[in-house]
Each structure stands twice: as structure tokens, then as C-alpha cells.
Amino acid sequence: MILASGTGSLASALLDAVEDDEYPATVAAVVSDRECPALKAAERRGVPTTVVPMTDDRAEWDRALADTVAGHHPDLVVSAGFMKILGADFLARFGGRIINAHPALLPSFPGAHAVPAALAHGVKVTGSTIHLVDEGVDTGPILAQAPVAVNPADDEITLHERIKMVERVLLVAVVRSIAVKGVVIEGRKAYIP
């Protein structure tokens, strides 16, 4: 199950991967909070899609999102460019089975503005992190990370594009490993055996 609300590059990477008969996972559906390119990418491949529009009542929306996702019976929920915080109801139903791709080396630069924050801070290396989702903002146990060098001429667009290239490969690899081996969670630490 993929949650997405953006351009669809991460969702497309997973959708491409599952088309390979050797890949050990499938995508049950792509769910979003709005119409977006990620849904179109799924529809082109015949993968079911659903939009659960954000409402003024955040708790109500979170329950509706959880009900929609539960209807697809996912083993794993992949937040791939889904730009909403998952609430208590969602986490209660799927906690420990939700992963997120983040465009920085956590715990540095959490939140929605990781790439400009890394540039503003002047770091020489940033990257991508795949982590379990918990009640915080990008605070869940880290499963995998990959570095990306920051070039002196980088701006937000060029750096983010290079991070996304690494992020797509990393996400596909982590989902493959989870499908085959599962995840072990020990407090703040999580790993794929």
C-alpha cells in the first residue's frame, strides 16, 4: 500500500519494481489526500487508487484514511511523498508497519523543508532516510540511509533531484528486504534481519 500526494516519483519507482515477477512485493493500492500525479502513475498500471480528501476535522480524516487503507489489507504502508502527518487512529491500526522516505539524513533536518534547511545550514553531505513512522515528525526508528554530496553550485531543485534518485533506489531496496525478511524493532532501533 502506498500513500502519496506529490509528483509520484517514489510511488512510480515502487510501481515499476513490482512489475518485475522477481520482486517479492505487490502494491495493493495508492491512496492520496488529493488528486496528484502519483495516482495517475498507479492508474496507468491498473493499480487501484483512492482519494481521501482532507477535512476540517483532522481526527475524522485520520479515521477515514485508516479505514480506506485497512480495506486493502496491507502488510506494509509506504509513505512515498505523502505530505500529511498520520494521526493517532492511523498509527494505532498500522503502527510498526508504516515506513517513510525522507530527503535528509535523519535526525538532521526533519519536516517538510529538509532540502532547503540542509542548504541553508551549509552541510557537505545530506541524503535519504527510510524510517518507521511514529507519532513524531520524522522521529521513527531508522531502517536505512544513503548519502548524497552537496555540490557548491546546488540549489534546492538540483539537490532535491539528486536526493530523489538515491531515495527511489533505497526505498525499493528496503521494501524488498522487508517483504523477504521483515523488520525487528528494539526500542529506538529497527533493522531488517
TrEMBL record:
Cited PROSITE patterns: GART
Q: What is this protein called?
A: Phosphoribosylglycinamide formyltransferase
Instruction: State the Gene Ontology terms under molecular function.
Output: phosphoribosylglycinamide formyltransferase activity
EC identifiers of the protein:
2.1.2.2
GO biological process per UniProt: 'de novo' IMP biosynthetic process
Q: Which reaction equation describes what this protein catalyses?
A: N(1)-(5-phospho-beta-D-ribosyl)glycinamide + (6R)-10-formyltetrahydrofolate = N(2)-formyl-N(1)-(5-phospho-beta-D-ribosyl)glycinamide + (6S)-5,6,7,8-tetrahydrofolate + H(+)
Q: Organism's domain of life?
A: Bacteria
What does the record give as the function of this protein?
Catalyzes the transfer of a formyl group from 10-formyltetrahydrofolate to 5-phospho-ribosyl-glycinamide (GAR), producing 5-phospho-ribosyl-N-formylglycinamide (FGAR) and tetrahydrofolate.
Residues annotated to bind (6R)-10-formyltetrahydrofolate = R58, M83, K84, I85, L86, N100
Question: Species name for this entry?
Answer: Williamsia limnetica
